[in-house]
Design goal:
407 residues, Rossmann fold, 2 domains, 15 helices, 12 strands
Length: 407
């Protein structure tokens, strides 16, 4: 079958779909991954067809407040809406839609009659068991959680309203609101598989049929660790990894200085990943190594702890490695995953990015490394994750979907 996977956003929003695509291709399917131009090389190195989605996932730089973030998000969604129809035009037998592309992809599937399925990295369906992910998942009680979850979906629908209206006009479809589309999908029990581990979030008992938690699909493996990393790892005690992924743009100098000072106060060597912030020390020293993109699956089992922004992918990679976490969440779903890591005992209490100081980070690193319970809990969760096969569950679901629809 011809399978089109659509994914938009930062590296962590896209990378897991390379591994999913490879698994589908190994099963004999023709797989295309539609995402932003900056990921073309990664997609093609995996042997997958690349189709370009418009939009700059960096969103034009740092935050300028909530209003500025919402404005840029709406612009980003508008660009996606104008491009998602084009990536589907070459045709596909099945559409797999990520969390970020589904509110637009539903309408493309509606116009083309192509069977579709959600492949989500976050739980977005309202539930009484926890609050909305974008609010950090903090519980407001069962009724409050569901009400807050519906309100969060309302924000998403308003964000997509203009792009959806433009897209449906272009596709020759009658007007349809976001809430109406969601009701239609619920009535059909539209399937959405969630690519995170039940070791972190169990499937809520009040979710409708068709929504399942299946386990992670991991990014396709990169090359081996660079020689300089291997040499650094062999040259002393296990270091602490510090990286903030797509967060902290424009703050690399400040964050690099803070990270080095915290590592030295904690008495640990460190590996800094530059990321979008451009994280780097003021000067290279023997006890701190700065790296670019590399395979977290290869590195994290060999570090003493992982300091990270608690994006879904990095949080899962640290847990999979059995490494203690020091979560420093910034925005979006990151506070949710940070709390989940702490709740299962695999992380120290989160340090909000805005409250990050040398003293707080140094104390958190010492606690994460010196208290063996964090590694013990992370290792137990890793054993549970090893029994899950998220990509295999997607593969089986695609086969069922094809049989049911005759694709």
């Amino acid at each position: 079958m011809r399978i089109l996977v659509t994914a938009a956003g930062s590296h962590g929003d896209v990378a897991p779909y390379t591994g999913l695509g490879v698994r589908l291709a190994e099963a004999g399917h023709e797989v295309a991954l539609a995402t932003h131009r900056s990921y073309r090389g990664v997609v093609e190195r995996c042997g997958l067809e690349f189709r370009e989605l418009p939009g700059d996932p960096r969103g034009g730089g740092g935050s300028s407040g909530k209003g500025g973030m919402l404005r840029r998000a709406k612009e980003f969604v508008g660009e996606l809406g104008r491009g998602i129809a084009e990536v589907a035009e070459p045709g596909a037998d099945v559409l797999l839609l990520s969390t970020s592309t589904a509110p637009l992809g539903w309408h493309v599937a509606d116009a083309t009659g192509t069977p579709s399925m959600g492949v989500y990295l976050q739980p977005v369906e309202p539930t009484g068991e926890f609050g909305p992910v974008v609010g950090g998942g903090r519980s407001l009680g069962r009724w409050g959680n569901r009400a807050a979850g519906r309100a969060a979906l309302g924000v998403v629908d308003r964000l997509h309203r203009d792009a959806v209206a433009e897209l449906r006009t272009r596709l020759g479809l009658p007007p349809l609101t976001g809430p109406a589309m969601r009701r239609r999908l619920a009535n059909r029990q539209w399937p959405a598989l969630h690519g995170f581990s039940s070791a972190l979030v169990r499937r809520p008992a009040d979710w409708r049929p068709g929504l399942d938690v299946v386990g992670n699909w991991w990014p396709a493996a990169l090359d081996q660790l660079p020689d300089e990393v291997e040499e650094f790892l062999a040259d002393g005690p296990a270091p602490v990894f510090i990286g903030f992924g797509s967060m902290g743009a424009g703050q690399g100098e400040r964050l690099g200085r803070l990270a080095v000072q915290a590592l030295r106060a904690a008495g640990r060597r460190g590996i800094l990943q530059s990321g979008w912030a451009g994280l780097a020390p003021e000067a290279e020293t023997d006890d701190v190594l700065t790296v670019g993109p590399l395979d977290h699956a290869a590195l994290f089992p060999r570090v003493a702890a992982v300091v990270h922004h608690a994006g879904a992918g990095t949080a899962a990679a640290a847990l999979r490695a059995g490494a203690p976490s020091v979560p420093v969440p910034v925005t979006a779903d990151q506070p949710f995953w940070a709390r989940r890591l702490t709740a299962v005992g695999a992380a120290v209490a989160p340090i909000p990015f805005a409250d990050l100081t040398v003293e707080r980070l140094a104390a958190a690193i010492r606690l994460a490394v010196d208290d063996p319970s964090h590694r013990e809990h992370a290792t137990a969760a890793a054993a549970r994750m090893a029994k899950e096969d998220g990509a295999g569950r997607v593969l089986n679901a695609v086969a069922r979907l094809a049989r049911r629809t005759g694709a």
